[in-house]
Write a structure and sequence with these properties.
Chain lengths: 419, 292
């Protein structure tokens, strides 16, 4: 989406040099608050923060941006990059420790949809509670009550206590109340993962309607939503603006960012998923396997669209009646992605003692989506494992366009009829 | 500087909001009180809904239903009356112990509630209020609604006890309203100040709990300070004793024995309230999310 969907109007929001300090230990937070309270008690403004304590860090540092009427600004970044903190400051929920936010007009925030609900009260009571928090009077809420209940599709469950709701039902109710607001600026944080697929589509449609009358600041990990709704995107990384520009470029940059180790499943989970390693040194020797390019030169990274090869060499010290080679593949989240095996080959291959064999596995480019591939090299004689050890990691580089899931299956859309 | 202020005023008139680290710092106590009042007015619908919801939560699922919301506030008074009724107690200041205690305890619970509620609300609802962008003042006021209801129930009980004991009231009972108002301002000021400090220094709530446990006996609530011997000399230094005894004397004696102390504590209360409201207003957004 290179050109804005809407003509840019007057700025409705301006953030200048925003910074926010956090501490990893609550005692440090309280100590800093104590300093501020000590100054405020005597009528002095809070001191500019000169140095950080041991456990303090800048959650945001020197963030500046503008939002214009009719514009949708996307904020993307890895976990812990400061997206929600940024949104909370823009929404006026917390004060910055540096810089300034200027907002011209009304605003509403869909940041934590379930906050403020009372578990023991009914869904209907919670509608009034939530709507009142958004500034609606009881009469105004009553006027739109049916609309809210209808949108939520909760039916008779609306009279049941909120504690009996599933998390999906709670989210549906929360979104339905929020959907009646008509602010000049709307702040949205990861709230589109609402309910089931059908309800999510309904929410997306409502967001699209709201998009026509409100400017948006939109935080999401869903790159499809970002590409769909946003005119401009900021990539936050470690509390700073890493990139600001068109969604397509921003998404490319976001996808090239290194996910911190804590953001993925633990290495232990991955090790467990990949299973045990094994070497029958009495059967094979001088085993070598690595990812390489067409010339056979080892590679660790490969472009999304380039063919990738796996080189395997070994010497057999026994007779192998039925050689089977296999490469099971996982992604970093320990999901078993695919398996590449000779088991389906029409001809069975046998090996004599002392033979040295060299194989080259070729995988067509443009199928494995960007990310790091973990894999095993397995060599079997029928059902008996002779060798099972990990290949080096292979990084598939950024595709230059959005991709979905872990693989892109070769496909083509054909227009059959148009009336 | 003047131009900047003018711009700010013009912008405010246009619906412009500005958030920065020194937000609100230029406001004085009176402006802070006005701003808090405006917040409460803007969120009045939410306050009402929250109170209604909390009120219903008090009896939801019980067999006797709303009955409990009327009975529970009377329990503390009835306990104290029962305790003094187990033995023959002298009449205090010409009043029966039941009248003396029910009158004092009702005021005591109102005043201590005005201190405790802000502390508890800020501690428990700080993070939730941050997420919903509702000012803490609105949450505090909704908790006061419950306090007011409980107080009205207790007042009704006091009236019944006064009638039953045929305690004679004087025309000066009309002064109870301004006295209680002064006491409430003092205690609310204290509550607002301590609610913020408790987020930073978490021992405060525990210290307050201990002080108030002793305080009910050291403030002439259950029996007169005169019966505590040397402590009577501190009667004017204890604002609770001054406010409660003044209200009681206005109701039943026809005169106030410590008008000077009452006036002094009223002035202290107003100053404390303005200062605390200003401090609370300035610090509210800074403590957000830091209670956990």
């Amino acid at each position: 989406m290179s050109s804005p969907l809407y003509e840019l109007g007057e700025p409705v929001l301006r953030a200048t040099g925003l910074s926010k300090l956090y501490a990893r230990r609550s005692s440090d937070t309280r100590a800093r608050l104590g300093e501020v309270a000590g100054r405020v008690l005597f009528g002095r403004p809070p001191k500019e923060i000169q140095s950080l304590r041991k456990h303090e860090f800048w959650a945001l540092k020197d963030i500046s941006c503008e939002l214009h009427q009719g514009e949708a600004l996307g904020i993307i970044g890895l976990n812990g990059s400061g997206k929600t903190t940024f949104l909370r400051i823009l929404a006026g929920q917390i004060l910055p420790d540096g810089g300034e936010v200027w907002i011209n007009g009304s605003s509403a925030a869909m940041i934590d949809l379930q906050a403020g609900f009372q578990a023991s009260a009914s869904g209907q009571e919670n509608i009034f509670l939530r709507a009142a928090a958004l500034g609606f009077t009881r009469a105004q809420t009553e006027h739109r009550l049916n609309e809210i209940i209808e949108f939520s599709e909760l039916g008779d469950a609306i009279a049941a206590p909120m504690s009996s709701y599933s998390s999906g039902m709670k989210m549906r109710l929360a979104f339905s109340v929020m959907a009646i607001v008509e602010p000049d600026v709307l702040f949205i944080d990861e709230v589109l993962a609402v309910g089931d697929f059908r309800f999510r589509q309904k929410c997306l449609a409502r967001i699209r309607e709201m998009r026509e009358r409100s400017a948006f600041v939109f935080v999401s990990h869903g790159m499809g939503d970002i590409a769909l709704f946003c005119d401009r995107v900021i990539v936050l990384h470690k509390g700073k603006i890493h990139f600001e520009g068109p969604p397509k470029e921003a998404i490319e940059i976001y996808e090239s960012l290194d996910e911190p180790a804590s953001a993925v499943d633990t290495p232990a989970q991955l090790t467990k998923a990949m299973g045990p390693t094994f070497t029958n040194s009495g059967a094979l020797k001088d085993v070598a396997h690595f990812w390489c390019d067409e010339s056979g030169a080892p590679v660790t990274n490969i472009a999304f669209s380039d063919n990738v090869h796996l080189s395997l060499e070994f010497t057999s010290t026994v007779d192998i009646k039925r050689l089977i080679l296999g490469v099971p593949v996982w992604n970093l989240n320990a999901h078993y992605t695919t398996g590449l095996s000779t088991q389906l080959a029409s001809e069975e291959l046998s090996v004599r003692t002392g033979e040295r064999l060299k194989f080259l596995l070729e995988i067509r480019g443009g199928i494995a989506n960007p990310g790091t591939l973990k894999s095993m090299m397995t060599i079997l004689d029928g059902a008996e494992f002779l060798y099972r050890n990990p290949n080096p990691d292979l990084v598939i580089e950024n595709a230059g366009h959005p991709t979905w899931g872990v693989v892109t299956i070769p496909h083509q859309w054909n227009l059959i009829e148009r009336q | 500087m003047t131009e900047k202020l003018l711009n700010t005023r013009k912008e405010r008139a246009k619906g412009v909001r500005i958030y920065r680290p020194d937000s609100r710092i230029r406001q004085n106590g009176l402006q802070a009180v006005i701003s808090i009042s405006r917040e409460i007015r803007n969120f009045r619908s939410h306050i009402t809904t929250l109170f209604t919801s909390d009120f219903r939560k008090g009896y939801r699922g019980t067999v006797l239903g709303i009955f409990w919301n009327f009975v529970l506030p009377m329990v503390p008074i009835s306990v104290y009356i029962m305790l003094v009724s187990l033995r023959i107690m002298p009449r205090y200041e010409g009043l029966s112990p039941a009248v003396y205690i029910s009158f004092n305890v009702t005021i005591w619970f109102l005043l201590t509630g005005l201190i405790r509620q802000p502390i508890q609300v800020v501690k428990s609802k700080n993070t939730e209020m941050m997420k919903t962008a509702i000012p803490l003042s609105a949450a505090i006021v909704s908790s006061f609604a419950q306090l007011c209801f409980d107080t009205f129930v207790r007042i009704a009980l006091v009236v019944v006890i006064i009638l039953a004991m045929q305690a004679a009231t004087k025309w000066t009972a009309l002064f109870i309203v301004p006295i209680i108002l002064s006491a409430s301002i003092f205690c609310l000021g204290l509550g607002l100040l301590l609610s913020i400090l408790n987020v930073i220094y978490r021992d405060i709530e525990r210290v307050i709990t201990i002080l108030l446990q002793y305080g009910i006996f050291l403030s002439g609530v259950i029996f007169p300070l005169a019966s505590l011997g040397p402590l009577v000399s501190l009667s004017a230094a204890n604002p609770f004793n001054v406010f409660i005894s003044s209200a009681r004397e206005a109701a039943f004696a026809g005169s106030i024995s410590q008008p000077g102390a009452l006036a002094a504590w009223t002035v202290v209360g107003v100053i404390l309230f303005l200062y605390s409201a200003w401090f609370f207003y300035l610090m509210e957004y800074r403590i957000r999310g830091s209670s956990e």
